[in-house]
Amino acid sequence: MASSSPITHNSPLFLVCGDDDFAVKSRAKQLFQQWSAELGGMDHETIEATVNTSGDALTALGKLREALQTLPFFGGGKVVWLRDCNFLGEDRTASSAAVTEALAELAEELKKFQWQSVRLLISAGKVDKRKVFYKTLDKIGTVETFSAWSADDKDWAEQAEMAARGAFRKREKQIPEDALAELISRVGPNARQLDTEVEKLCLFVGERKQITFPDVAAICSQNKTARAFALGDALGDRDLPRVLKRLDEELWETKFDKDKSEIGLLYGLIGKVRAMLFLKEMMREGWVKEARDYNSFKAQLERVPADKLPADRKFNPLALNPYVLYKALPQAKKYSSGELVRAMEVLLRCNQRLVSSGLDEALVLQQALVQIVTPAAAN
Question: Listing from the earlier edge strand, what are the strands of the sheet with 142-146?
């Protein structure tokens, strides 16, 4: 997702930055190639600016100054690219007095610089917009900022779909809505992996123009975020053997992945049950019903009266990824409303036991899932 200053893109000074590393690098490469072609010549320079110390940062800035002051050997124009700069943010190197002073001095030089035959491109990660250097670039040049997609963003799935459609069009391929939705579900909010999976699919189908749902299922990987849905899907399908198998896999991963925990797994299960409860209520209201495909289901969601739903995103079904709801719709029919309410109570007690007791976390989660998936009469 990009935002740019209103300054014209004809500016000879350009900063591309943001925490979406893939988008930043892609855009910067595109600009460097475009400018190099426009100016011609052989004198374009790339200065690597990923550094570990303040001394390395000062060395990179010194090379940049030298490149800007060195006229093209064969005449014509020159593009200078300060690539992958990592000292414009808030980390220790960027905050050192020497680097801060050097950047402030460079900012003053850029204000007075004669740009007739030179263009400067800077690509960087997250930048500190409070600093003089950024403010100067934003004032006298062009700034484009690319923010990484996040699962917390309501529209990340729509952004990903747009990016994927564009990537397929570029490769002269077509993909139906259900296959595209499955691709986005597998990849999650990850622009780099999405581009990789699009490339894999295009190579997989060869000369065939149409990419199908079975193609996506056969060739596309599931990233960490998508794999986390597997346990919830097994719960939704009320498939106890699969639930226990997926739980064992997830618990094993918590031993090696610091971002995973038993509590995190529990919260994912709570989200799944909540989605099925939402769908039960929406079906009861007549807002949604089983759809023949993902497209028609999305159309139903667009007609749901927004004023009838809570403002709090935690309790608003329309804040969820539409494809998550689409997949959960037939699963919601496997449970009664009472069973889903009871499932939330079981998960609440599970949460309390995980937090306050010394019981084995795996056993606590297993017991809770068995209680939920097993029909009430059998418990």
Answer: 2-4, 142-146, 13-17, 118-124, 78-85, 45-48
**Segments in the chain below pLDDT 70:** 1-10, 73-75, 151-155, 224-228, 259, 376-379
Phi, psi of 67 (to 5 degrees): -65, -40
Instruction: Classify domain 224-378 at the CATH topology level.
Output: Zinc Finger, Delta Prime; domain 3 (1.20.272)
| One CATH from 1.10.10.10, 3.20.20.20, 1.10.8.60, 2.40.100.10 for 156-219 | 1.10.8.60
Q: Compute the mean pLDDT over every residue in the chain, rounded to the nearest whole number.
A: 86
Angle at CA of residue 333, ends 328 and 336, nearest 5°: 120
The predicted structure's pLDDT at residue 24: 92
Q: What is the pTM of this model?
A: 0.61
With both helix axes pointing from N to C terminus, report the angle between 97-112 and 132-140 in degrees, rounded to the nearest 10: 20
| Tokens describing residue 244 | 């226990």
Integer angstrom CA distances of residue 376 from 8, 270, 271, 275 = 65, 19, 21, 20
**47 three-class SS:** strand
CATH architecture group of domain 2-146: 3-Layer(aba) Sandwich (3.40)
What is the DSSP secondary-structure string of 145-167?
EEPPP-TTSTTHHHHHHHHHHHH
Kindly list the distances between the CA atom of residue 313 and the CA atoms of 154, 236, 317, 319, in Å, as whole numbers in the listed order: 9, 22, 8, 6
The runs of H, that is alpha helices, within 4-155 are 21-39, 54-69, 92-95, 97-112, 132-140
Write out the residue limits of the CATH 1.10.8.60 domain(s) in the chain. Answer: 156-219
DSSP 266-311: HHHHHHHHHHHHHHHHHHHHTS----SSHHHHHHHHHTS-GGGS-S
